[in-house]
Each structure stands twice: as structure tokens, then as C-alpha cells.
What does this fold into?
Amino acid sequence: MSSGLPTTVLPAPTAPEAEQLQAARALPVVERRAAVAAVAATFPRFLDCWADLGDLGRDTIERYAAYRVGYHRGLDALRANGWRGSGYVRWAEPTNHGFLRSLRGLALMANEIGEADEAERCQTFLLQLDPSGTPVS
It folds into this structure.
């Protein structure tokens, strides 16, 4: 018997990843983007960095690109952790936030650049992954 769709939870970042991102986030706004980018360069699989870079992007296209990298790296991470293209990836799990934030940001930026079909696919995917929704901020 099945208990419904499976839920995938991404692993927690390592201590160095978390510490370096926390330090970058604590910097003044004018220094923060470069510091987060340096963490992403050191730990390119750390999804929270890509979501942060999307949030800190200097323009719509830079934001779109960072969110897209976070989304694709997130799909890779999900697959590596047992996700097979269906099932839940819940916001309630803090370690899923980087991927879900990247997907939400990609939807918003796709809409901004006139990619309405991509924006709609991303929004639909978000609801499939977590029907309870993801917070706006």
C-alpha cells in the first residue's frame, strides 16, 4: 500500500557553507551581492546562494539568470536525493527553501521579461511541489 506521493527533503548545507552565507548576508547591502557571489563560486551546489543572488541581482536579466541556475541545480539536487519527477518538495522543510525560492523567483522574472508560458509553468510546478504554497517573503 502507498501512503501517497513521496516528499523529498534536500540535505542541510555543510557548516562552512552555512557560516559563509550567513557572514555574507550580514554585510552592508553594497557589499552583500559580491560576498554572496563569492560563496556561490566556492559552493556552486549551495542553492540558497543562487536564490540570494537572484534576490540581489542588479537587473531583471541578472536576477532571472541566478534564479534559473538555482532552479536547475535544485532539480539536480532533488534527483540526487530520490525525487523522480513527482512528489512533494515542501516549504515547511527549511532545506528546501533555496530551490523553492529560485523557482518562485524564476517565475516572477520570466513574467517580467514577457515569458508568460514559462512563468505559468513555474507557478504550476510550485503548486504541485507544495499545494499549501510558499510564502511571498
In short: The chain has a mean pLDDT of 95. The two ends are 38 Å apart (CA to CA).
